[in-house]
Amino acid sequence: MSDRLSRSDLVPRLTDQGYSARDVAARRRWVERRTGTRLTQVGRCALASEPMRGNVENPIGAAQVPLGVAGPLAIQGEHARGTFYVPLALTEGAVVRSYERGMIALTRSGGVVARLYADENRVAPVFQFDGVAEARHFCLRLPELLPELQAAAAATTRHGRLLRLEPRPLGRAVMVNFCYSTADAHGMNMIAKATESACQLLVARGVAGRYTIFSAMDSEKRASGALLGGGKGKQVVAGARLPARLVRAYLHTTPAELREVWEATLLGHLQSGAIGYNGQYANGLAALFIACGQDVANVANSAVGITHAEVTPEGDLYASVTLPSLTVATVGGGTGGGTARECLEMLGCAGPGGAPKLAEIVAATLLAGELSMGAALASGEFVAAHEAYGRNRPPAAPVPAADDRPGAAE
Amino acid sequence: MSDRLSRSDLVPRLTDQGYSARDVAARRRWVERRTGTRLTQVGRCALASEPMRGNVENPIGAAQVPLGVAGPLAIQGEHARGTFYVPLALTEGAVVRSYERGMIALTRSGGVVARLYADENRVAPVFQFDGVAEARHFCLRLPELLPELQAAAAATTRHGRLLRLEPRPLGRAVMVNFCYSTADAHGMNMIAKATESACQLLVARGVAGRYTIFSAMDSEKRASGALLGGGKGKQVVAGARLPARLVRAYLHTTPAELREVWEATLLGHLQSGAIGYNGQYANGLAALFIACGQDVANVANSAVGITHAEVTPEGDLYASVTLPSLTVATVGGGTGGGTARECLEMLGCAGPGGAPKLAEIVAATLLAGELSMGAALASGEFVAAHEAYGRNRPPAAPVPAADDRPGAAE
Amino acid sequence: MSDRLSRSDLVPRLTDQGYSARDVAARRRWVERRTGTRLTQVGRCALASEPMRGNVENPIGAAQVPLGVAGPLAIQGEHARGTFYVPLALTEGAVVRSYERGMIALTRSGGVVARLYADENRVAPVFQFDGVAEARHFCLRLPELLPELQAAAAATTRHGRLLRLEPRPLGRAVMVNFCYSTADAHGMNMIAKATESACQLLVARGVAGRYTIFSAMDSEKRASGALLGGGKGKQVVAGARLPARLVRAYLHTTPAELREVWEATLLGHLQSGAIGYNGQYANGLAALFIACGQDVANVANSAVGITHAEVTPEGDLYASVTLPSLTVATVGGGTGGGTARECLEMLGCAGPGGAPKLAEIVAATLLAGELSMGAALASGEFVAAHEAYGRNRPPAAPVPAADDRPGAAE
Amino acid sequence: MSDRLSRSDLVPRLTDQGYSARDVAARRRWVERRTGTRLTQVGRCALASEPMRGNVENPIGAAQVPLGVAGPLAIQGEHARGTFYVPLALTEGAVVRSYERGMIALTRSGGVVARLYADENRVAPVFQFDGVAEARHFCLRLPELLPELQAAAAATTRHGRLLRLEPRPLGRAVMVNFCYSTADAHGMNMIAKATESACQLLVARGVAGRYTIFSAMDSEKRASGALLGGGKGKQVVAGARLPARLVRAYLHTTPAELREVWEATLLGHLQSGAIGYNGQYANGLAALFIACGQDVANVANSAVGITHAEVTPEGDLYASVTLPSLTVATVGGGTGGGTARECLEMLGCAGPGGAPKLAEIVAATLLAGELSMGAALASGEFVAAHEAYGRNRPPAAPVPAADDRPGAAE
User: Fold this and answer.
1) Contact predicate D101/D73, CB 8 Å
2) B293 and chain A: CB distance < 8 Å anywhere?
3) pTM over cut 0.90
4) ipTM of the complex in this document
5) How far apart are CA C52 and CA B317, in angstroms?
6) Strands D112-123 and D126-128
7) Cβ contact, residue pair D62, C57, below 8 Å
């Protein structure tokens, strides 16, 4: 087998891991040669190469994803207040139009109310003991040890703060959620390091023996029922009341019909053993995350949530999204520069202090998508809309004055 | 409220929905003015604007994501055969290096065996009836109606083929999985249209009355237990046997230690009510999907799967990933041009015929990520690796000859 | 350690495992001596001891559970047709009254329509292979082997018939649902034996190597999402339309209020990551199963299902229960004699041919419980009802002419 | 329809709801006449009829379930200490023998270590608000209201104590876990009443408006992922180390083989979207619950847990069960008299103070069942054991000196 893998088969790392423009170009050419391809567009990117350090290894350029904008979206949050235009990067026709339609309906109805309930992140190491009694003993000692563990964690980071411990036994092992506030960063590296330090202290004290830093009980980047209880990022709720006449004008349906679709699709979730309920969270999340330099893999946990649609006694619609574990950041990762920084600036969220605002904007955006998708299903326009917007050719006839836009509406 | 939303608040659609370079630029400037930002980098993209039609609406440019490459990755699939270099677009330091390390270990061990079990997609409309007896009657009639429904579906698409119907009662409603083969496209629009046509036929025949085209039972872009049984994209399995000495040399751990980490984290999944089990599928999927122009929202369903790690009687490691509902495409959507096309070409998967091959490559790539993450946890290097690669500064000292690369290994 | 456990510590097995009345009494006295207790009532049972062979080992008498009766319950099934009085064994006050109330409301509304969709049972062995390719190869061969496997299975049982195989890969292993019809028995022993025989044939043919007869993928006696798709017992649906005036008269609420409670509690299921949705299936199932000699542990899988409540356009209520994996039997196990047999006879279900009828009765009974519980919550009577019926003292005042009974109702 | 239901169709309630022996007999005869059956054995029960008040309505006698005994089972708990003989009521052959075998192996190995982590019960009302902001406001006020709510709850019960509130938003609604300690009772009626009182106080204060007393988020009598985190009854863990030679002697397998079966069946749980993992919890729970007068419907939540099997570095077996939400009681419900009281006395758990002890005994019993079932699968004896014990005929030949009993073992 060794003949199949020589040093020359390895992707070249070059000087200092190769982040200079020259090194990136050299590596790209190496890949072109090895794979017999031309990577012209990959190389023609606006991103500078040096800042990619810390974001990617073996860089060869940038992937480019079409970027659209949807809005206006009026939000009455505690952090996001005003009217927003939301950048969405994706390659599925009709999705931006779908979100835009929902946003206009929401804005015309007075906007989205958003509230942040919690803002935490966690790492869950697992500790192994000799037996059930020793595991129980460990759990009983944890409360007294908390201050010391908080100090050990604090010594490793300025931004992450250890809030509490949540132990969970499993036989003779104990998994412990180390719960942190992480300011505007997602902060997994930061809190992993802090937790490592705390664990080592437990070992040094003789309180614990063997441990693994991740047990996956924290549900980072995976879907789980536990996420419904929060703990992985922002717990945020967004809701709005839409008068029946505006539902009719902009969404081409009625509150009762929308409610029925909500119910039918919720039962489809039940049938398939899904976690939570939503129409198209993943669409909005992925598009916003790509645009805004978020860690896109966090779509897996962020998409766990619950959409609700109700008809009020007055016959209007009340719709909401509940996102218990939304992972967003405005510092660190991919948020500091490039197109991501520009998109965050479009939302007024770039840099320190922006994360809670971004969370409310994401929630309001998802609500728009839920309404619009539900409406398309209720009105029977779903397939037609994808037909109209999902093809790569200009409209045959002039697109009619879209009646999902206000001039036409009333 | 109407004073808050006038026609001038709307994102301009311009001529024919505005896909000319000039219109895109005009719209971008409009957004800059409205949001008081500069979108310089957003506008400096390699993507041509006209081809964005069908992929995005209200285009203003492109989001750009750092692109790295990981490899070599030897695969012995039925569709993917040879050695591959995999493009990964993301902004989390250490991930490319992590996948690369796993790929090298796998390649040195003889490569990954991959097999495709099934290749389907589905839409699940829900039909409403007067009562339980009528719903049952409908189900009993479906088998005889299949040929007619197949014909109705076939009349709408050349590429999608209706394979079978799977009805599921819920009270007096019936949800029905319409299961299709869709060739190299993901094909949701195609099969939604085909299913719509089939449903209309059922109504015209008087067999069904009210229906909604989506019940969500198909689990498109959401995580669910049902996905473990397949049906949403490719069902693909990849596995490899790694000799203990290579596990030691490249992954810095032993098969038994890796096995233990696998078990500890699997129990963490159980504790949190997760669906399936994996280490970091979402990382690899998101990075590959962004690079290759896939619909990134499909990470939600594609990430449902099961990783397994075993110690063989000989003391070696056998590791595998089982991906029952992996959604990948090589035609349609964002796959036709731009950086996505170049990335697909790097993998030899662009265009018709490429999807099964892409599925095997994705599976093999995820296996590499599982091994590497498990190994980092087992060896205690996880936090240190993220420290080393997750920061935006050049290494203080020359990076040591990486012992996860073959020259050093043996 | 051995001083803690001598032969005299063991429960005496006596002659031929000790099922004679004398042996049972001797064993009971032995237990009384060892535990220093009096087991007077345990010994005063109506059950003969010899027939306990095959149902229990080390018998010492019988547990006795208070038995009530609820009815009348009108059912229009395909197997159950007429009016039934349902035996319920339990120790929770108010439950029988609750089910009775629902039954009367349903009966007054014209009765419950019930339909059986499927009637199967399954065992899911897991086969281990050398690698992913070998596992795939095995799956590809299964279709051609089916007739031979059916013959091998048939040679072990007259009642179980192997219908089909459903393979599911997991890395280099393959789990296979062996799906059977089992007539009126639950038949786990029967189909386990048949499957064992089929597996041995696969080994003898060299098609498979190592296997374990149970992988638990069949979900016998456990809750799982897969059960929603059926396969473990009877898939049965029961529904009824209740006029608004009867909902008011018997259930003290309105269709709309009941609908709201249904929705609120369904969302509570979502929040807690429950499988399916129901109000109190477990109450009715446990009580019926104990009364009718069913395997009570099967409550775990049988309770997986979905209750639905809708308001019709006319303002009436349509309510249903969908039970995809209801395990009931009328031959074998505890169904052949004693109080169980008498209870089955009360339902006209004893012996061969009774199981489908019993399934429909169970479904109709559960529907009654769902309605009544929902109504109690909607009307705010829930706590009061449990207060009134959950105490061990006669009513202080004459119980008022219960308005959930027809004379009072209209 | 009314012709189908006259007053004479109703089950007679008789004097004071009819709990006198005479009334029970009269009702039984009424049922016999209506259904054309003989309920001889149902009537020949040891249970007195008056004490059935509060446990059942419309009583007609008792269901009788064969009762066996398994043991000895040595336990080193905090509450259960010593050697126990466990009563099991059921009708599935081989199960008592299976549990007995596991118990003997555990006892010979030094017994089971059991620990109680938590002991709570909860009710989760749902409160409805006008919008997301009002819901958030409600949650913010809850902490200050806690003392007042505790007082309101305390005024309704001596035994239940309101410990804390756990609010969970869902759109504009808020579900709140009201968490109580309930001493030795399961206490659902008690805490429902206390919670009702607290809710009414919230309404009276103007803090809340509409509410429903149950949202089902508490997961009473249903399976859910949330139960893994505890809160519904006893959180209890039991584990034991079994030397390899005793595993061989009593369980006819090796720690490594048992471990492999554990893994294979755990993966089967993953495949089927099960919650947690176990071999046969439902068997032991149902049998113990019936014997001991527990609410058998609570098997649904109690069966959610996780079994673990490990091979220690010394080659021994460490096995455990983790039961986060085990519902057991020794006062109230069916525990006060009859055969249930006698069975509780066998375990030394009857009456006040017994519930924690009972919880540890249940956990240890389930561990025995897990070991024995795993061993039967590992050794290939599973099908044969059910053959031998699942039939209603005496053994053809003298049963061989069972090698799962100590005399033979060593």
Assistant:
1) no
2) yes
3) yes
4) 0.96
5) 50
6) unpaired
7) no
